[in-house]
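#lab-general

N.A. 3:47 PM
ok so I finally got the sequence cleaned up, no stray characters, all 90 residues accounted for. can someone with queue access submit it? mine expired

B.Y. 3:52 PM
send it over

N.A. 3:53 PM
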Amino acid sequence: MTKPNFKPLRDWILLPDPRKTKTESGIILSEEAADKMTTNILEVLDVGPECKSVKAGDTVMVDPSVAGKIIVIDEVSYVLVSEFHVLGVL
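B.Y. 4:20 PM
back already:
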C-alpha cells in the first residue's frame, strides 16, 4: 500500500484500514464475513515524531479491542491509533 500525503502528529501511528469489503478476486463480502477477515496485525505506514518503539515499515499487533480512528485520504481508508495501543512489533 502506498503511503498517503499525511504525517501523523505526536504518538499517532498511521495504518492501513484492516476492514475488508471484498476479496482480492473481487468478491463482495457481507458485513459478517468482512468482520471475520479483519486483522489486528498491520504494517505501519507512518508514525508521529513522538513514537519511540515503532517506525514506518514495522509490522505491529494492535490491541484488538481498540477501534482506532478511521480517516479517508484520496478516497482510501486508513486507521490512526496511539502508540500506546500497539501490543508489540513482529
